[in-house]
Specification:
The chain has 107 residues and is mainly alpha-helical. The chain contains three helices and two strands, in the order H-E-E-H-H. It has a two-stranded antiparallel sheet.
């Protein structure tokens, strides 16, 4: 019986997981995936991430509001804990206070 060589290709590189949409759900999903060691790529069609939670100026520069969602306190406590959001929120507050004292306007 003739010997048959088995030609095997090297396995393709693993494809990234791609949450579509950089709203808070897409970002939270991406954070969990990336933290578990998976290659993750968020695709967002806009030039800002955050989805409905983005702070914008729909009524002019003097009013800053989130697009749709404002009840951030409804975020699951486990999500806040896992992604260390309380620490980040505190850091963001400090950052904003410093910016305000320095006369820097943040959106
Ligand atoms: C009228 C209205 C009022 C609401 N009011 C409140 C409220 O008062 N308080 C509250 O907590 N929640 C409110 N919500 C709900 C809140 O907006 C949603 O629960 C929340 O935004 C869902 O988050 P998400 O990440 O799933 O989606 P989104 O925040 O909608 O984010 C989706 C993201 O995906 C992007 N995207 C969409 N399609 C594509 C694509 N094909 N390719 C790439 N990117 C894409 C979008 O640009 C966006 O950034 C309201 C919703 C509506 C419609």
């Amino acid at each position: 019986m003739p010997s048959r060589r088995l030609h095997t290709r090297p396995p393709p590189p693993p494809l990234p997981l791609v949450p579509v949409g950089g709203g808070h759900n897409g970002l939270a999903a991406a954070a969990y995936l990336a933290r578990s060691g998976l290659d993750t790529l968020v695709c967002e069609r806009r030039d800002v991430i955050g989805g409905a939670a983005v702070s914008e100026h729909p009524f002019g520069p003097e009013y800053t509001v989130t697009s749709l969602s404002y009840v951030v306190s409804l975020l699951s406590p486990s999500l806040v804990r896992d992604l260390e959001l309380a620490d980040r929120r505190a850091a963001r507050r400090r950052h904003r206070a410093t910016a305000r004292r320095s006369g820097i306007r943040l959106s």
